[in-house]
Amino acid sequence: MSGDRAAPVFSIDIALRRGSFERAVHIESSARVIALVGESGAGKTSILQAIAGLVRPQRGHIEIGGQRLFDAARGIDVPAHRRRIGYVFQDARLFPHLDVRRNLLYGYRGIAREQPRFALPAIVDLLGIGALLDRRTAGLSGGELQRVALGRALMSQPRILLLDEPLSMLDMNRREDLLPYLQRVRDEIALPMIYVSHYPDEVRRIAAYDVHAIG
Ligand SMILES: Nc1ncnc2c1ncn2[C@@H]1O[C@H](COP(=O)(O)OP(=O)(O)OP(=O)(O)O)[C@@H](O)[C@H]1O
């Protein structure tokens, strides 16, 4: 056996405090896609927020895909807007006054023109949302909203994808409809990805081999 080990994609060792809540988190993984599971209130969303730079850990470090995002000992704390995180929430959080095309193009905001980026048609194809482009988001179904939210996150050309229970607002059938799109994004957009869910079946189908229990 060789002594070589794959460099970890995720190296997270932090302590979080939010009000009276405290949690130490240690995740070391060379998998590109991992899942976080745990009871409500265990701290899963707080971990994603720390990765995104929205919550500052008390100590420790966060390194993902070779990027040191936070390191208390070395004085590193990359500002949230420079971390290039694609974040998809339980509720899609799209702009209701804009159509789907404009919601997607909003993802380009803040990206330099010369930077390589996903073209709109590629994302539209990947997520099967071509027929929705001219519609306002107000009338879309939950599953359509989440596909558009995922598209907008990808348009921002992220280096890391964080998915916080993206299917939890959908009923069983819609969840089944959306899972293949999540799998396509996982496989075709080769980014480090963290998937948070309460549902063992979803976790098994998205990040089968690297599941971290929080709490
Ligand atoms: N802004 C805040 N101020 C104080 N406490 C907070 C804040 N945000 C979260 N908390 C607390 O931190 C703990 C962890 O919350 P978090 O949302 O990270 O858990 P979770 O595992 O994602 O839960 P769920 O599965 O219900 O979404 C909870 O006790 C919560 O009340």
Automatic annotation (TrEMBL):
ATP-binding in keyword set: yes
Asked if ATP-binding is a keyword of the record, the answer is: yes
Highest taxon in the source lineage: Bacteria
Q: What is this protein called?
A: ATP-binding cassette domain-containing protein
Xref: InterPro entries: AAA+_ATPase, ABC_transporter-like_ATP-bd, ABC_transporter-like_CS, Molybdenum_import_ModC, P-loop_NTPase
Task: Cite the entry's keywords alphabetically.
Answer: ATP-binding, Nucleotide-binding
**Gene3D superfamilies in the record:** P-loop containing nucleotide triphosphate hydrolases
Originating species: Lysobacter stagni
The molecular function terms in GO held by this entry are: ATP binding
List each copy of the ABC transporter domain by range: 4-215
